[in-house]
Amino acid sequence: MMDELHNKAVCNESLEGNILNLKSNISIPIDSCNNYTNHTELYIEPTLLYDVPVSIILLLSMFYGTISVMAVVGNALVIWIVTSSRRMHNVTNLYIANLALADIVIGLFSIPFQFQAALLQRWNLPALMCPFCPFVQVLSVNVSIFTLTAIAIDRHRAILSPLSAIPSKFRAKMSIAAIWAIAFVLATPMAIALRVQFIEYGDRDGRKLVKPFCYNVRLPERTMLFYRLTLLFVQYLVPVVIITVVYMRMALRLWGSHAPGNAQDSRDANLMRNKKKHEGVDSKYGGVGNAYYTESNEKIMNGVGFE
């Protein structure tokens, strides 16, 4: 029994000695450990961190590219038709050309660039494009909505007050200039607030990753919240109310009216009745006149004077 305990003690001592020798042989510089730790804490995001298949990227690029090209070409044709023909120079077509111009702007400077940020969840474009693209987007949307509202108001005036509300191209041009000025002012906070910012976050392996975002860094969050609510009010609520009211009034005015030249049963019946009366009177007096004329001629031919 004593021999077994002695053997176990000897084995334990030899095992501890081997472990100590192993520890003494392992030497890792502390500086290298610190460098490794710092390297893993700040790890720049790889290009393909968001695993989007290349086929999806190509498909969406072709889709958005086609939309952009069609928007630019189609609206450019609209502007060319309106400007090249003098017969097209009226108030309504001026507003339509303004709509086309707003669509060209958003097709050139917003559609080709905004989708990549939504797809990849990071901003890969130059830093200048970060405030510029959202600014152009808000500007174009404002111009389009305000122009549609102006068209509705112009049609409302033309239908409800056709004589007093004479359309004027000068007034339409001034309205278009005011639309662009107001839209520019409302879009300016986007150009002020947004900048490219590098945001850190951790991945599943515990590494700190950094990726660029187009983010609000200039204005307080409460100010941006108020600005977004203002855009909701100006871009949606007010135009919807105005357009709904004016088109409802136009519909009520035109509901029971008839366009000139269209058939109306009561009018046509009165015209036919009056026509028959005139034909009857003409035939009656025409017959009496013919009889008197014939009798007079016979008396003249026979040498008989009038009684």
UniProtKB/TrEMBL annotation:
Membrane-spanning intervals of the chain: 56-82, 94-115, 135-153, 174-194, 225-248
Superkingdom: Eukaryota
Ranges for domain G-protein coupled receptors family 1 profile: 74-307
A GO molecular function held by the record: neuropeptide Y receptor activity
GO cellular component labels: plasma membrane
UniProt keyword terms in alphabetical order: G-protein coupled receptor, Membrane, Receptor, Transducer, Transmembrane, Transmembrane helix
Membrane topology per record: Multi-pass membrane protein
InterPro entries: GPCR_Rhodpsn (IPR000276), GPCR_Rhodpsn_7TM (IPR017452), NPY_rcpt (IPR000611)
Name the record gives this protein: G-protein coupled receptors family 1 profile domain-containing protein
Organism: Macrosiphum euphorbiae
